[in-house]
Design brief:
Number of strands of chain B: 17
Helix content of chain A: 40-55%
Largest interface: A-B, 34 and 38 residues
CATH topology of the largest domain in chain A: Rossmann fold
Helix content of chain B: 25-40%
Oligomer: heterodimer
Order of helices and strands of chain A: HHHEHEHEHEHHEEHEEEHHHHHH
Strand content of chain B: 5-15%
CATH architecture of the largest domain in chain B: 3-Layer(aba) Sandwich
Strand order of the largest sheet of chain B: 2-1-5-3-4
Distance between the termini of chain B: 47 Å
CATH architecture of the largest domain in chain A: 3-Layer(aba) Sandwich
Structural class of chain A: alpha/beta
Number of domains of chain B: 4
Largest sheet of chain A: 5 strands, mixed
Largest sheet of chain B: 5 strands, mixed
Radius of gyration of chain B: 25 Å
Radius of gyration of chain A: 21 Å
Strand content of chain A: 5-15%
CATH class of the largest domain in chain A: Alpha Beta
Strand order of the largest sheet of chain A: 6-5-9-7-8
Distance between the termini of chain A: 57 Å
Number of domains of chain A: 3
Number of helices of chain A: 15
Number of strands of chain A: 9
CATH superfamily of the largest domain in chain B: Fe-only Hydrogenase (Larger Subunit), Chain L, domain 3
CATH topology of the largest domain in chain B: Fe-only Hydrogenase (Larger Subunit), Chain L, domain 3
Structural class of chain B: alpha/beta
Chain lengths: 394, 617
């Protein structure tokens, strides 16, 4: 039996996993799309695109068949919330995919599971089988003639970049996991060139919850631009690491209190590709409009060497860049070498300036989010901790 | 698509308005406004990549820059192609590429045509801002007779992979590893020669740097020319003469056939022959073989007659079918390519007539083709007892040799080919363009069978339906009347009556991706399975787009080379292979048992190897 190490209480505990599916089938596709749009739910993978709009675009897109793809390539360093969802709330995710399928008129859903989660396959297959038996998947779902949906699981091979939606699609189609050019976007040309509603694991679970409890319930919490609840994988220098469900807009300080973090010097918010916040920024809100609410939050106590942290992140990006576009493939290597120079106190201020300018190019000229976000930690740490970095140099 | 009407979208680029069809890339839209956007991974012949990020532009309202080459316009937008951050980003992309490019420009064959070097100049690169690698990362792969891979110079633009895998549908080159370890490689990282590379060289034409080049045989040719004991002859194929001017600054589309003859003499070649002779010989042999297959199928009702017959002139195509469709090998004409027929004739007939010991003859072939280098090294190609052709050199290598001789080719006086193989024929020259072999074959076969002039059926003898650049072309021709069997073929068929009323079905395909489509169609028993004769060329455009032709290449450049080739045909005195006096003389004096006879079989025909997709080692 698969179990989670830290079990916190989520709103999902108060909802039956398939109430949402029942409501969705009763009300019909249009009602699902307007309910989700009304809830202001935004993609939980990090980019935060309106889920209602995504459903609407895919539903309206020309081309058949259409697909639902669940991005379970949970690869951002420090994130493990999707694993928790699969372990304890898999039905919500699968119900959400089914609801999305009926909303966009797709008959097939694909769950793209990161290679490292292979151990979850047996469990998920069992859940899928039970759902088929209970008439929640397959033909004539919940006894409704002609309403059919199937879900299959596909395993990734361990590349971080395959969490990028178009690289994921390439990987699904059997090619190298390299991001595509956009437009066209997956909503019009996704899996096999067909309209595809591709979202994060949590987004699908949220769809199931919102259809059960209503848009008003969801948007009652959160901020104007970031509605509802959000799962966070919180780790690092704190007493109670784990997966937490917090309302959007929670401040860093409040979050630190919840997890029992003391003497914190910095918080990495939104994973390795997110932002590194200095302790004087802890009043900032975790929300799309402020500190990025992607799944992972890493807490750094005062004893941590922040340059080592930056080096660690950059080593990750140097390993995980797909190698397709120049700024990301070569840029991260230069940044990593720069951090090493800094740690050895051998980086001249002029070269550091050169590297900071390179970061700006990487952010705007890389092909996908990986290269666009990888310099964030470098920039934040250089900016926020420059006094420590240059102490004693030259 | 349910809506065939093209939607027009108005965009503003650098302050200028333009209306473009939906889906047009920013690069193409800017081109229409004469706005220059630098590119590197982009190539007109290839699918889009958008990976080098040199062509980035700014779209108003977008936080990030977009690759102009790959961004399809789907809504009205305002675009800027110049700004401080665009210039900085382009320069950064260049700096980063240069930091990993190990290329000593002095020793690089692509120095003058290197797109990276040109860009560095365009952007005023005066220092390696992020360092410069001087340690070699990879050993050079010289395993192939045709293509040399120096991955130290590779900038990972993926043009070669797209050329090989998508344009040609071969997949000998691919990408392995990721991030900084990414490299362009072969299957299992084996030497290129061990895999299923067909040596077409299309990758070398599209590589922006010197990472992929033809294997250079110029030094070996110089050595032969310098050796007084050697009698060095060269045959020149039709396509190089239509392209070589581009290496000397001429616009594409100027033939320099006769200027080249003078230049070759100055280089020291003892005899200069026209491959057209062997092209015409090929038509007679291959045409005769077709007639025999038709006779077996139609008269003898032999269901193993193996129709359609496939042409065998293109060594890239030959290796393609050996690797990917070995089950179709019985359909291949057993006739050698013109290059190899010529070599065999020089080391036998020519050697005998001129009383030269064939072991002292060095036979060089000027070809538009990298695969010809491989072909002349095939073990089957020693019919004369010696290597029929010693060296195949490409248009690019010859241009380099001329340059070493201080020859400015366009300014050379004109001079003729040498006898006995010097007759310029139109039927030979059009071998250089896709459809040319088919057109030559039809001109000869129709006249031999009907006894009527081809000009009666096709205006000026130009068989337009088989011309052009469409990937696959199909034509039908009904034989309404037949004439007497000409003397050359009398020993093979009693009369032509059996061909009366037959509709001859032919097809032409160029580029191996198109060949694949045709072969799959035949496998499925569809339209092309009913064809009698199909011409295949490995390279897009045929030989004029060969892997040894001048760089750059594009559809427009290839079209201009084709124009030059068809103009040469129109100007030729002899335009039908069977009227080439040198060919007739050879059958009278040497191949006395006629086309597809014993002697011709020994010298002019070959066998193939079913290679399959496995590695050699």
């Amino acid at each position: 039996m698969i179990q989670s190490n830290y079990k916190n209480r989520f709103t999902f505990d108060d909802i039956k996993s398939d109430t949402g599916l029942k409501v969705a089938l009763e009300k019909g596709a249009q009602a699902v799309i307007s309910e989700i749009t009304d809830s202001k739910l935004r993609g939980c993978g990090g980019a935060g695109f309106s889920t209602g709009m995504k459903l609407k675009f895919t539903a309206e897109a020309f081309g058949n068949p259409k697909y639902v793809v669940c991005n379970a390539d949970e690869g951002e360093p420090g994130t493990f919330k999707d694993r928790e969802l699969f372990t304890n709330y898999a039905d919500f995710v699968l119900a959400g995919m089914t609801i999305a399928g009926t909303a966009i008129n797709a008959a097939e859903g694909i769950l793209y599971l990161r290679g490292e989660y292979e151990y979850l396959v047996e469990h998920l297959e069992k859940v899928l089988e039970t759902r088929r038996k209970n008439n929640l998947l397959g033909k004539d779902i919940m006894g409704r003639k002609g309403v059919g949906f199937e879900i299959k699981i596909r395993l990734g091979a361990g590349a971080y970049v395959c969490g990028e939606e178009t690289a994921l699609l390439e990987s699904l189609e059997g090619y190298r996991g390299e991001p595509r050019n956009r437009p066209p976007f997956p909503v019009t040309a996704g899996y096999s060139g067909k309209p595809t509603c591709l979202s994060n694991v949590e987004t699908f679970a949220r769809i199931a919850a919102i259809m059960a409890k209503g848009a008003a319930w969801f948007k009652a919490v959160g901020t104007e631009k970031s509605a509802g609840y959000k799962l966070f994988s919180i780790s690092g220098d704190c007493e109670k690491p784990g997966v937490y469900e917090l309302p959007m807009g929670t401040t860093i300080a409040a979050m630190l209190k919840v997890v029992g973090a003391k003497n914190t010097q910095a918080v990495q918010c939104g994973g390795a590709s997110g932002r590194c916040l200095h302790k004087n920024e802890f009043n900032r809100k975790i929300a799309f409009e402020d500190a990025p609410p992607g799944g992972a939050i890493i807490v750094f106590g005062e004893d941590r060497d922040m340059l080592e942290v930056a080096e660690n992140f950059l080593e990750f990006f140097v390993e995980e860049s797909c190698g397709q576009c120049t700024p990301c493939r070569e840029g991260n290597v230069k940044l990593l070498a720069g951090i090493k120079l800094l740690r050895n106190k051998k980086c001249s201020p002029a070269y550091l300036e050169e590297l900071v300018a390179l970061c700006e190019t990487m952010k705007i000229a890389s092909k996908c989010g990986l290269g666009q976000a990888s310099p964030n930690a470098f920039l934040d740490i250089i900016k926020n901790f420059s006094s420590e970095i240059f102490m004693g140099s030259n | 698509m349910n809506n065939p009407q093209v939607k027009m979208i108005e965009v503003v680029i650098d302050g200028q308005k333009i209306s473009v069809a939906e889906g047009t890339t920013i690069l193409k839209a800017a081109e229409q406004l004469n706005i220059h956007i630098p590119t590197l991974c982009y190539h007109e012949d290839l699918c889009l990549s958008g990976s080098c990020r040199i062509c980035v532009v700014e779209i108003e309202g977008s936080k990030t820059l977009q690759a102009a080459c790959a961004y399809a316009i789907t809504m009205p937008m305002t675009i800027y192609t110049q700004s401080a951050r665009i210039r900085r980003a382009r320069r950064h992309a260049l700096d980063l590429i240069l930091s990993e490019h190990v290329g000593d420009c002095y020793t690089c064959k692509r120095s003058e045509s290197c797109e990276l070097r040109a860009l560095a100049a365009e952007y005023g690169v005066d220092a390696f801002r992020f360092g410069h690698r001087d340690q070699l990362r990879y050993t050079v792969d010289g395993s192939s007779h045709s293509i040399r891979r120096d991955m130290n110079k590779c900038i990972l633009c993926s043009r070669c992979v797209r050329a090989c895998t998508i344009m040609q549908d071969i997949g000998a080159l691919g990408t392995s590893n990721r991030s900084h370890e990414t490299k362009i490689t072969t299957f299992a990282d084996k030497p290129l020669a061990d895999g299923n590379c067909i040596n077409c060289g299309q990758c070398t034409n599209r590589c922006p740097t010197g990472a992929l080049t033809e294997k250079d045989d110029a030094d070996a040719v110089w050595r032969a020319l310098e050796d007084p004991t050697k009698h060095v002859v060269i045959q020149t194929a039709p396509a190089p003469r239509a392209g070589i001017g581009e290496c000397f600054g001429l616009e594409p589309g100027h033939s320099l056939t006769l200027e080249m003859n003078t230049a070759l003499r100055r280089c020291g070649f003892d005899k200069i022959f026209d491959t057209n002779f062997a092209a015409d010989l090929t038509i007679i042999e291959e045409g005769t073989e077709l007639i025999l297959r038709l006779y077996n199928a139609l008269v003898k009702k032999d269901n193993k007659a193996m129709l359609p017959q496939f042409t065998s002139c293109s060594p890239g195509w030959v290796k393609y079918i050996e690797h990917f469709y070995p089950e179709f090998l019985p359909h291949m004409s057993s006739a050698k390519s013109p290059q190899q027929m010529f070599g065999a004739m020089i080391k036998t007939y020519y050697a005998k007539v001129h009383n030269i010991d064939p072991k002292n003859i060095v036979c060089v072939a000027l070809m538009p083709c990298t695969a010809k280098k491989y072909e002349c090294n095939r073990p089957e190609m020693c019919a004369s007892g010696f290597k029929d052709v010693d060296y195949g050199i490409t248009t690019r290598e010859l241009a380099q040799m001329f340059s070493e001789m201080g020859i400015d080719l366009p300014k050379m006086p004109k001079s003729d080919f040498d006898d006995p193989f010097g007759t310029e024929t139109g039927s030979g020259v059009i071998f250089g363009a896709t459809g040319g072999v088919m057109e030559s074959a039809l001109r000869t076969v129709i006249e031999l069978v009907t006894g009527e002039k081809i000009e009666k059926i096709f205006k000026e003898g130009n068989i337009i339906p088989v011309r052009g650049f469409e990937g696959i072309r199909y034509a039908e021709l009904k034989i309404d009347k037949v004439g007497p069997v000409p003397a050359l073929l009398k020993h093979l068929v009693p009369n032509w009556d059996w061909l009366k009323g037959v509709t001859l079905k032919v097809a032409v395909g160029h580029g191996t991706a198109n060949a694949k489509k045709v072969l799959e169609d035949i496998k499925a028993g569809c339209k092309f399975s009913e064809c009698h004769f199909i011409e295949f060329m490995a390279c897009p455009g045929g030989c004029l787009g060969g892997g040894g032709q001048p760089i750059p290449t594009s559809p427009a450049i290839r079209a201009k080379r084709a124009q030059a080739i068809y103009a040469d045909d129109m100007g030729a005195k002899v335009r039908k292979s069977y009227e080439n006096p040198a060919v007739l003389r050879v059958y009278k004096e040497f191949l006395t048992d006629g086309p597809c006879g014993h002697k011709s079989h020994k010298l002019l025909h070959t066998t193939y190897v079913a290679r399959g997709k496995n590695l050699v080692k």
